[in-house]
Amino acid sequence: MSENYKDMWKNLGLKLVPHDALLEVLGKGYEDIYLTQNNRPESMAYFNFVMSEIHGLRIKELLDEKAAGRKVIGSFCVFVPEEIVRAADATLVGLCTGADFATEEVDKLLPRNTCSLIKSAFGFKLGKVCPYIESADMIVGENTCDGKKKSYEILKNLVPNLYVMDLPQMKSDEGKALLKAEYLRFKEAVEKLTGISIDVTRLKKGIDIVNNKRKAIHRLSDLRKADPSPISGLDALLANQVYFYDDPIRFTGSVNKICDELKKRIEKKEGVFPKGTPRILLSGCPMAVPNWKLPWIIETSGAVIVGEESCVGERGTRNLTDDSGNTVDELMEAIINRYFKVDCAIFTPNPDRLDHIVEMVEKYQANGVVHYGLQFCQPYLMESMPVEKALEEKNIPTLRIDTDYSMEDVGQLKTRVEAFVELLK
Ligand code: BJ8
């Protein structure tokens, strides 16, 4: 990344020395994991560019938008409705949560048995190395798991602009009423932040932009049904990760371009791995940039990942928002209906997620499931037990992995994954 951004980062209050070190590690990791892949689609070059500029050009674009009077809203969860943000000409960005940083400082604020994702969010803030959180005019924290909701009480002391969104824990009428009340309150907060009153035209436009982004990802997922798969799981994951950072309209165009190329590859029976390579569905906690450890282990152990049952994946992107309403109330209702279907493990009970995993195994013709739980993540680790049982009953081989962001267990994980892949052959 070029020297030109140094002043920008300094003005944002980033600490340049650790930030440089972070970018170096990120760049090296990307090179080792992504650029060493064989038979990559040519149009993935766009994502190479995005990754090389993820703290550079993209941040400059956000700052230019801010200079033009637009607002930036940061989020940690797929429950923050992007449609409402776009309707107010604001931009929603995911905040950095995919790597360990400033761990000693984090340990002074959070218990050791906190999941890596939450610790990472704090590490990037405390270490002053996330330009997204420093650019945000509003940071939305959501009451999902206990770890997140309690940590926001602490985060509130570290940032001036935290907005906490309450979320239901049950898929009941009362739960839906809570989601509705919270989305209406969020709409008001966004209107106040931006000074824009969200009308039908604006909301329809917001829905359209976000639906188009989802449609492009659906198209990409659909192409992964082919054997041989025309794209690696690592590259598809990258598209799902960049979904949270990139300009949505440009992202939609770029993913559709990749899909055009993948379609041609399928016609020519070209794949990243040979036909008959064991196919794996990855299920569990979200994987934010640069959390590529487990997919990298899987795809260097003789298997290909064909789908992600994850918030950075199909749990987050499936289901479009119905745009047929003619009033703000009707469109808001459609937004609430769409998000109420998200089957995060914080819901109890959560049978829809089990059904979705089985549905995905069938849809993408997966030979087995790797369930990924972050250490200390009660919701997903607890749920991995019934997931495994339900899959076993259907004779679908399952491997439960629980890990963190460190690289210490790579050797051990590789041995387990290789044994699992052998079983699938
Ligand atoms: S909708 S999955 S993005 S909450 S890994 S912090 S659950 S202890 S991330 Fe999530 Fe929204 Fe749900 Fe999706 Fe807690 Fe678990 Fe940590 Fe987690």
Describe this structure in words.
There is one protein chain. The protein has helices spanning 6-11, 16-33, 45-52, 57-67, 82-87, 103-109, 116-126, 131-135, 146-155, 173-194, 200-223, 233-242, 248-267, 293-299, 314-317, 328-340, 351-363, 378-393, 410-424, and strands spanning 72-75, 91-94, 138-142, 162-165, 279-284, 304-309, 368-374, 398-403. The N and C termini lie far apart (42 Å). Helices cover 53% and strands 10% of the residues. The model has no long low-confidence stretch (mean pLDDT 97). It is globular. The protein is an alpha/beta fold and 425 residues long. Residues 77-79, 115, 117-118, 144-145, 147-148, 285-286, 311, 342, 344, 346, 374, 377, 379-380 line the site of Double cubane cluster. The site of Double cubane cluster has 20 residues, from α7, α9 and α18.
Features of this protein?
four-stranded parallel β-sheet, alpha/beta, 10% strand, 19 helices, 425 residues, binds Double cubane cluster
How would the blueprint of this fold be written?
Layout: H1 6-11, H2 16-33, H3 45-52, H4 57-67, E1 72-75, H5 82-87, E2 91-94, H6 103-109, H7 116-126, H8 131-135, E3 138-142, H9 146-155, E4 162-165, H10 173-194, H11 200-223, H12 233-242, H13 248-267, E5 279-284, H14 293-299, E6 304-309, H15 314-317, H16 328-340, H17 351-363, E7 368-374, H18 378-393, E8 398-403, H19 410-424
Parallel strand pairs: 1-2, 1-3, 3-4, 5-6, 5-7, 7-8
Helix pairs in contact: 6-7, 10-16, 11-13, 11-16, 14-19
